Amino acid sequence: MRENDPNKQILVVDDEDAIRTGIAQVLSRLGLKVAMAAGGLLALEMMARRPYAIVLLDIKMPDLDGLEVLQRLRQDYPGTEVIMITGFPSIQGAVECIKHGALDYLVKPFRIDDLEAVVRKALDHRGQRARQEPGEPEAGREGFEFIIGESPAMKKVFAKIRRAAPSDSTVLLTGESGTGKELAARAIHLLSSRRDQEFVPVDCSALVETLLESELFGHVKGSFTGAHQTKHGLFELANHGTFFFDEITNLSLNIQAKLLRVIQEREFMQVGSQKRIKLDIRIIASSNRDLNEAVKAGSFREDLFYRLSVIPILLPPLRERRGDIPLLVEHFLPKYNQKGNREVTGISPAAMKMLSAYAWPGNVRELEHTIERIVILEDADIIQPEHLPSFISQRQGEFQVFTEEDHTLEDLEKRYIQFVLRRTKGRRQDAARILGINRKTLSNKIEKYNLRVNW
To answer: Does the reported pTM lie above 0.70?
Structure first.
């Protein structure tokens, strides 16, 4: 290491001499250059003379409160990583540290291993962030292969993902349903140092609370009725990788409290066990709700919100990036041509104009399902306005295929389901998605109408 390498300069700020010198001795053994300050005012003076890469900052000091120093550092030296130190741990204190931009914090008395780990994390974060030069031209599409977009709004999202990915900071992805939050989470994972480890997504709305705790943490044999063997949870599966909480506002307050402890302590216990398991994961969460409003309503913990929103990224709705609609259509057409063994070669300018004018309340997901439906159900080489759903083209008479003679509603339903099944070659999952029903409902209707299912 170069003696004066600016990326290895550390400043320790604490009014206790024993703490300062103890930290300095440990970090010096790592080859770091350590300076010390006994108070906040002196620390700011030293930073003005020569900015430091990392500052370890005590919260309680007699001359200037550590949180005030933190805010000054974040404002004047945004490239400096700040690690807070406290002898009086509290949830509110942790919230304030994270809220004002600290990378992490240590609780006195802390172990040497914990000190070394958090400083290495800060060094990695700084080094990886420095390699993403601000304003550099976008290089390639690595990590973004499945996120389609060239609009200014999406370029801003790509830039934020590139800057966030190399760190281990938690990321909160927000945006309406169908805007691609899971794709963004996967891009963050693929662009991170954890890319060769597991990416584990969990849909927080898909599991009831009684099952979710066991799914996340695992359980030991005999811990509850039905626990016939020990089960490893999703956290263990994701260890050293990335864990994605999709629609995190669906977690109960009880699970939120347990998740907060996992994030703070980086360890957990299986249900029914007293053994603590160390955890090294990067956490990404998403929500289609305004978490500030959820906090105000009392349905989401404020301390967990600040823990998760270290790096917030908003995914824009499709109506705010209409220029990307032609690119998305070009992407979806070959995908569903191949899936449905069809040969739809393109879309007419008039039809594209209609697609671009529509508001797309379901965003990219709605556009994809619309293209899938048209490719599978319409007999056309080129998509024309008449092939679009009536709510997009504003025309009447969506079911003209059934106007040969009068039918009852059940007759129409039977014919339409049979028509969709024929076009999907009997694939129930695809047919259910096009029909807008679940697979179980479709199976019940197939049985009710005694429909053939093998084509």
So the answer is: no
Cα–Cα distance, 373 to 387 (Å, whole number): 10
CB 199 within 8 A of CB 340: no
The rounded Cα 124 to chain-centroid distance in angstroms is 21
Pick the CATH number of 152-316 from 2.40.37.20, 3.40.50.300, 3.40.630.30, 3.30.1360.70: 3.40.50.300
Q: List the beta strands (DSSP E) in 178-257.
A: 199-203, 218-219, 231-232, 242-246
pLDDT category, 326, cuts 50, 70, 90? very high
What is the structure's pLDDT at 154? 94
pLDDT in tens, 147-167: 889 899 999 999 999 999 998
What is the pairing mode between strands 54-58 and 9-13? parallel
Residue of 31, 98, 406 lying closest to 263 (CA atoms): 98
pLDDT-derived band of residue 390, with 50, 70 and 90 as boundaries? confident
CATH number of the structural domain 6-130: 3.40.50.2300
Calpha distance 265→286 (Å, rounded): 22
pLDDT at 301: 95
Question: Smallest Cα–Cα separation from 189: which of 173, 166, 172?
Answer: 166
Alpha-carbon gap, residue 397 to 399, rounded angstroms? 6
To which residue do tokens 């990378």 refer? 103
